Amino acid sequence: MTNTSPESLAYAACIGLDWADKQHLICLQAADSKRIETLTLQQKPEMLHDWLIGLRHRFGGRPVALAIEQTRGAVIHALLRYDFVHIYRVPPKSLARYREAMHASYAKDDPSDAALLLEWAQFHRDKVRVWVPDSPQSRALARLVEFRRKAVNDRVRVGNKLTQLLKESFPQALDWAGSLDTLMACDFLDRWPSLSMLQRARTKSLQQFYYQHHCRNSAAIQERIQEIRSAVALTHDPAVLETSALMVRMLVAELRVLIRQIQPLEREIEQRFRQHPDQEIFDSLPGAGAALAPRLAVALGTDRSRFASAVEVQQYSGIAPVTRRSGKSCCVLHRWAAPKFLKQSFHEFAANSIPKCPWAKAYYQTMLQKGNKHHAAVRSLAYKWIRIIYRCWKDRILYDEMTYLKALSRRHSPVLQRLAPAA
User: Fold this and answer.
1) CA-closest candidate to residue 14, choices 114, 99, 107
2) CATH number for the domain whose boundaries are 13-131
């Protein structure tokens, strides 16, 4: 991402900071000196704070340029307290390529990385922008939506393990317990982790269980009880049944915790998103919903100078493809070097918009007809959506379906041909 504003600010010093788990390696060169100073700091908040306070006094509060190979983390959070520190976040892959260019041996060492980051702060900071953090409320929302996604991933992981275990020992439970991402399924499997235990249960107990979990169709309950009574076990091997029952209860305990913890996360996200200044913009997007609207909001942030164009968002998120051209050869590839969660947010929103938005469905079908596979077609759709979302975000306007359809009509888009029969 190229900085559109000239880097004419005279920094009091340039700093390269190589962060590590136990210590930080620092290379510093003051503007009025040719000497490069090196320093090692232990990973302790007090030591980092004292060093930064010392920098403030040494340079009289004048700004310093600090390059760091990190997108977020403990050090970034600590540096936010000091407004005189201008942070240049160097993409890890960019630094790796720069390291390979400078060191033919491909050697990697923390002190040399700190020196390379210093060079970046001195000579290449025009390639990135000074990082301007979002408001605390927006950063909190960004952390919450990512925590929720990770918790959901954990729930799916545990659910998949439980599904596989039940297929080996008690496959009927997958029909009788309900969806495994519910507390009803957890209660069912915790109480009856094997078919033999379930068949020993009284009819009244089974009826009460389903009534307590809001299953009030008496005929359906009676039919299910009859299925339980006539069911045949997949295996009678005690080595399989006894160990599986134990493991089922262990996985259910883990799954129950995840299900219960996701709910307060979702409530907190909903509450904070209602207070977000751009909440109405992202709620107006078809298919965004309660989960994806906050993710799209934090993907763009509250600093409207961060991205100069929609192309920058497309490239930074990894949705835009990479073109490699050499001589007569040319190929277009999927962009892998990108923030994973950000890329997932746009990809998942595009997929969710297909059944909710007629033109998105028509465009997706057009891409499939051209020979693209599902994910490639969704990425192409996400590429279009980013342009729309960016304009709504930049101009602070709600998404309007008719406005975009008129734009398609002016450009004589072939997508309209698929929309015509539906109209």
Assistant:
1) 114
2) 3.30.420.10
